[in-house]
Design brief:
Chain B: GO terms for molecular function: 2 iron, 2 sulfur cluster binding; 4 iron, 4 sulfur cluster binding; metal ion binding; molybdopterin cofactor binding; NADH dehydrogenase (ubiquinone) activity; NADH dehydrogenase activity; quinone binding. Chain B: One of its GO terms (biological process) is ATP synthesis coupled electron transport. Chain B: This is NADH-quinone oxidoreductase. The structure holds two protein chains of two kinds. Chain A is an alpha+beta fold. Chain A has six helices and five strands. In chain A, strands 2-3-5 form a three-stranded antiparallel sheet. The radius of gyration of chain A is 30 Å and the shape is elongated. Chain A starts with 14 loop residues before the first helix and ends in a 19-residue tail after the last helix. By secondary structure, chain B is an alpha/beta fold. Chain B has five domains: about 80 residues, Ubiquitin-like (UB roll); about 160 residues, 2-Layer Sandwich (Alpha-Beta Plaits), CATH 3.30.70; about 190 residues, 3-Layer(aba) Sandwich (Rossmann fold); about 160 residues, Dimethylsulfoxide Reductase, domain 2 (3-Layer(aba) Sandwich), CATH 3.40.228; about 110 residues, Barwin-like endoglucanases. In chain B, the strands form ten sheets. A seven-stranded mixed sheet of chain B has the order 14-13-26-25-24-15-16, with helices on both faces. The longest helix of chain B has 18 residues. Chain B is globular. In chain B, about 55% of the residues are buried. The model of chain B has no long low-confidence stretch (mean pLDDT about 90). The chains are: A alpha+beta, B alpha/beta.
């Protein structure tokens, strides 16, 4: 782009300018603003932790594992969250549910929250909506190791953050009826 | 292989012109130009079935779309694979499949390597017009190792066709019609088959998966290592898949290795042995009569100190060494170098002694090679095949597949001499495919072969040039066989003269004749003579040095061949070369920079005898378990008990290791690098798949460390360095590569054999061997290998233990009926050596008068076995017994 650089010819100061300089006019303008704020004082700093800010609806906070309304875990241990995670937060060990042959679940589930970016890709990847992002953010700790969460801790976060639970998948979508079902008449897989 | 050049056809695929041999299918031609046509039911190994309709393509001048998997190419054909019509067809086929296929990819083990998933991503819109409920099959229990989820099935029938065409097991069948077609097995019980895992490997979706690794992994997590299976001499390429340091799955890609992607139960399900909880993880030293954990330093120093003390006090020949042929070539080489150079004795032996040496000695004597002159390709291309005592399905399943391919796909004539009965059974039975089958008593293989040789000579089928070149040989054999009457042979073997005559004509008429000899011959008395006689038969037919003809002894252990080649046996230096071969001795001495010991070697049995007498003071045992393997008559336990130093390098605390002064934990084949040589002589790379379990180390490292402590270091950086040295020691070894051409018959040795070599023992070899009279009972008990177990690892593999975890006595139904024995009942087996009680299993494939007992569970049973030692090859035979049976109520 061609921009012609033109220098403005220097204007000769008028009498008004001279008067403003003499009477500290600009200073007064500034002081006016200061005094107005002084008189109509309204603090904008939140008195955290006594006061809490309203979070936006799509706020992405602490991750949690969810349950169905009958209390069973939603997670089927498919490891897709692990695959989706860009910073290797998640580790899933999948297996067969004890006592429920051919049903898959996550035997162990770990999240290393020290590395989490809160991008939400794991939540997107989850085929059964077993992961949720809560509105919790108060996770400052003295010991980093407390941010290595296991399955029980993640389920507990979910329990306190999502009191309203979904129905089981087969009740929501009858046409996917055949999804991770147990067959009681089969022997358990040996481990 | 046919030598004429095949006719080629030119066609155009998506605008690219390609020339392919006539008869190629369009789908294969497209693959050549890099055009991937989606398919479910097609597989290069199987005959085209064209049932999935996924591979539809447009062919110019044809009114409708054609299935690429069943349309052979034609001259000038123009194929288009990416037009709108074809795309619509793909979409419709997938929509139909997905109308019923459940969307349970997240919990399906195939998710991530599924053909349906890939094609859906590539070809379908994300919506379906179907709103109906999906089909649901009643879930039935299939088997402890194979899991079926029939709702996921796309009915391509690849599994059914694989089971029939390749494996010849026919365990699976489609049941029902249309979308309700379901893959089932026969009978109301769970699946009982060869468990080759082929159906799991070939299923394009997750309908058939491995229950052993179910839900433990996702395909993208797995790290792969291409290595070689250790369970038999076939040397199959396996891909071991691991997650972290955990063994998850084994498979084998189509086209990979000598097995072309086919595996057996041991290869597919046997891999857990390496991660068994019973593995030794620390060195153990005997202190105050007990084996206690020690550090590597303590253990090795103790061994070195004791060994040096004993060497000074006695001589180098107070030492012995015994190694299993399941070790890598590198381990075997360093072992024999340690024994010969650091200790200074030739008293070493390996488990090739148990039988494989019979075959190698006969090959060396007659044709001057220590390897097969044929390869697996020659088996497939053979016109006639003769199997002698192989029980090939259970001992060498993959070589068995090559035989099946030759017979089923290429119409080869199969002649079997087996201690087997043709029967439809849960396992495939090679005798079912035979044109001529000689049901042979295990002690009668020699006589049955004699009958065949006699039929060849009397049927004037002897090669005309041979009669001119080696008249003495032909005349000697003719006169020897004339001295044997047909009546005598018929009476002893139970065969008929007509069958021998017919068979002789079949064998003589074949251009490509391959003879395979199995453990039924090699591990039984007279094995050496029988193999030599079979080679004589090939000579008489004029086929020994013809291309595509030859004899192959099947090795039982994965590296039997390597053990002999590395010189880990009493009678050979690396090469193998005999101990008195001065040029070889000099050559090796220049590489080793040390003179080789001049004392004679000692075989396993000689070492045990020496230990019993007290002249053998120390024994290094690597992976062998003589106390557990040999019958009581061998007096292994007594002999080892008298030793001043017994060092065991083991994976598990075996009976022998429990007696040792020091036990060193060794790595299994999953944890080390190296090479294995399979029975046809292919030297193939073994790659580390997991980290060594506990503190275990590869065997060669222990010998290397010991040699340093003992003052004459054998130092190697890694297994490759050892291989490099092996290549300098054995001329031509480096040229072998992964696919060597088989050696040619050494004409000098052959003519030497034909003029004089044969004469030495011709009289004994060409005489009817009478069955031994033991007075022990009318039944012959054979200790056999089973399909589900091999070697010392398989009984530690949880998958294989689910298939078979105890010994049982297999008996013919007629015998069972005569003795009033029911399947699963108890029976007392006894002879003069002892008695055991075991369970009966009635199997039609067992010939009348024979009994089978799996050698892996022969703990008590082996006391019944007869113990003989081959006078020529020093091979101990202990796989046979004469027993009587009594029902236990």
């Amino acid at each position: 782009m061609n921009v012609a650089v033109t220098t403005q010819p220097k204007r000769k100061p008028s009498f008004g300018d001279w008067l403003k300089t003499l009477t500290f006019y600009e200073l007064l303008v500034g002081m006016k603003a200061t005094l107005t704020h002084l008189l109509n004082y309204k603090p904008i700093t939140l008195q955290y932790p006594h006061e809490k800010r309203l979070l936006p609806d799509n706020y992405r906070g602490m991750l949690a594992l969810l349950r169905y309304d009958d209390g069973t875990e939603k997670c089927v241990g498919c490891d897709l969250c692990e695959a989706a995670c860009p910073s290797r937060v998640i580790r899933v060990v999948s297996g067969e549910v004890p006592g429920e042959p051919t049903k898959r679940y996550s035997k162990e589930y770990y999240m290393d929250m020290t590395r989490c970016l809160f991008c939400g890709l794991c939540v997107d990847a989850c085929p059964v909506d077993a992961l949720g992002m809560t509105r919790e953010f108060e996770w400052a700790v003295y010991d980093k190791r407390q941010l290595h969460l296991n399955k029980q801790q993640l389920l507990a976060i979910g329990d306190r953050s999502f009191p309203v639970r979904e129905k089981r998948l087969e009740l929501q979508h009858p046409n996917v009826a055949f999804f991770n079902v147990t067959f009681k008449h089969l022997p358990q897989k040996e481990n | 292989m046919p030598d004429q050049k095949p006719e080629t056809v030119r066609l155009t695929i998506d605008g690219t012109t390609v020339a392919v041999p006539k008869g190629t299918l369009v789908i294969e031609a497209a693959r050549r130009v890099g055009v991937m046509i989606p398919h479910f039911c097609y597989h290069p190994k199987l005959k085209p079935d064209a049932n999935c309709r996924m591979c539809l393509v447009e062919v110019e001048k044809m009114p409708k779309l054609q299935t690429a998997c069943s349309t052979p190419v034609a001259e000038g054909m123009a194929v288009r694979t990416a037009t709108t019509t074809v795309d619509d067809a793909h979409k419709s086929v997938l929509e139909f499949i997905l109308a019923n296929h459940p969307l349970d990819c997240p919990v399906c083990d195939q998710g991530g390597k599924c053909d349906l998933q890939d094609f859906s991503h590539q070809y379908t819109p994300t919506t379906s017009r179907f709103t109906e409920t999906k089909r649901i099959f009643q879930k039935e229990y299939f088997s402890p190792l194979i899991e079926t989820q029939m709702n996921r099935c796309v009915q391509c029938l690849r599994c059914v066709r694989y089971c029939d065409e390749i494996m010849d097991v026919k365990a699976l069948a489609p049941v029902g019609r249309g979308t309700m077609t379901e893959i089932k097995h026969f009978g109301p019980h769970e699946l009982d088959c060869e468990f080759c895992g082929g159906c799991i490997q070939i299923c394009p979706v997750g309908a058939i998966t491995s229950r052993l690794s179910m839900y433990e992994y996702r395909p993208w997590m797995l790290k792969r290592a291409d290595t070689i299976c250790t369970f038999c001499g076939d040397g199959c390429r396996i891909t071991v898949q691991t997650k972290g340091n955990e063994l998850i799955e084994v498979n084998s890609a189509h086209g990979a290795g000598r097995n072309n992607g086919d595996l057996c139960a041991r290869g597919f399900f046997g891999f857990h042995a390496s991660s068994d909880a019973d593995r030794l993880t620390h060195p153990l030293i005997r202190r105050e009569g007990k084996l206690v954990e020690a550090t590597w330093e303590d253990a090795l120093e103790y061994v070195a100190e004791q060994a040096l003390r004993l060497k000074l006090a006695h001589s180098a020949d107070a030492f012995g060494g015994l190694i299993t042929s399941r070790c890598t070539n590198e381990d075997l080489y360093v072992f024999q170098k340690f024994m010969r150079q650091v200790i200074g004795t030739n008293r070493i032996d390996s488990s090739a002694r148990y039988g494989h040496l019979n075959g190698v000695q006969a090959l060396r004597r007659v044709q001057g090679t220590h390897r097969w002159t044929i390869a697996f390709e020659d088996i497939v291309a053979a016109n006639a095949l003769l199997l002698v005592g192989t029980n090939i399905t259970e001992t060498s399943p993959i070589t068995g597949l090559k035989v099946k391919e030759a017979v089923k796909k290429r119409q080869a004539s199969l002649v079997t001499m087996e201690a087997l009965q043709p029967a439809i059974d849960t396992l495939s039975n090679i005798t079912n495919l035979a044109l001529q089958h000689f049901p042979t008593h295990p002690a009668q293989f020699g006589n049955t072969v004699l009958g065949l040789t006699k039929a060849v000579i009397e049927g004037n089928l002897v090669d005309a040039t041979l009669a001119q070149q080696a008249p003495a040989f032909v005349q000697r054999l003719t006169s020897a066989l004339q001295g044997i009457s047909w009546e005598n042979l018929e009476a002893v073997t139970g065969q008929t003269r007509t069958q021998w005559t017919e068979t002789a004509k079949i064998l003589a008429g074949a251009n490509r004749l391959v003879i395979l000899v199995g453990n039924g011959v090699l591990r039984h008395p007279g094995g050496d003579a029988t193999v030599t006689n079979l080679l004589d038969l090939l000579i008489l037919l004029g086929k020994l040095d013809k291309p595509g003809c030859g004899l192959g002894p099947l090795a039982e252990e994965n590296n039997d061949q390597g053990a002999v080649e590395m010189g880990a046996v009493a009678e050979f230096f690396p090469g193998p070369a005999p101990l008195d071969d001065q040029p070889v001795r000099d050559r090796i001495a220049t590489v080793w920079r040390e003179e080789l010991p001049r004392t004679p070697g000692a075989s396993l049995t000689e070492m045990l005898a020496a230990a019993n007498k007290g002249s053998l003071k120390a024994l290094f045992v690597v992976g062998e378990n003589p106390v557990g393997t040999l019958p009581a008559e061998a007096q292994a336990a007594e002999a080892l008990g008298k030793l001043d130093l017994l060092v065991c390098q083991e994976l598990f605390l075996t009976e022998t290791a429990a007696m040792a002064h020091v036990v060193l934990p060794a790595c299994s084949y999953m944890e080390k690098d190296g090479t294995f040589t399979n029975s046809e002589g292919h030297v193939q790379g073994v790659r580390q798949a997991i980290n060594p379990v506990g503190d275990s180390r590869p065997d060669w490292e222990m010998f290397s460390a010991l040699s340093v402590l003992m003052g004459s270091p054998l130092e190697y950086g890694d297994a490759r360095e050892i291989l490099k040295e092996i290549r300098t020691v054995i001329p031509g070894y480096g040229l072998l590569g992964p696919t060597p051409t088989p050696p040619k018959v050494d004409q000098a040795v052959l003519s030497g054999y034909l003029t004089q070599g044969f004469a030495g023992d011709a009289a004994t070899r060409y005489a009817v061997s009478q069955p031994r009279q033991t007075g022990d009972g009318s039944f012959t008990l054979m200790f056999v290998q089973t399909l589900f177990h091999s070697g010392k690892l398989s009984t530690h593999s949880k998958g294989l233990l689910q298939l078979q975890q105890e010994g049982f006595l297999s008996i013919n139904p007629e015998d069972a009926a005569r003795l009033d024995l029911a399947d699963g009942g108890q029976v007392k087996v006894s002879n003069s050596r002892g008695a055991i009680t075991t369970t009966v299993k009635i199997r039609e494939r067992v010939p009348a008068g024979l009994l089978w007992f799996p050698e892996h569970f022969d703990g008590e049973a082996k006391q019944l076995a007869e113990w003989t030692i081959d006078p020529r090859t020093q091979i101990p035979y202990f796989k046979l017994a004469h027993v009587s049976l009594a029902k236990v109520s």
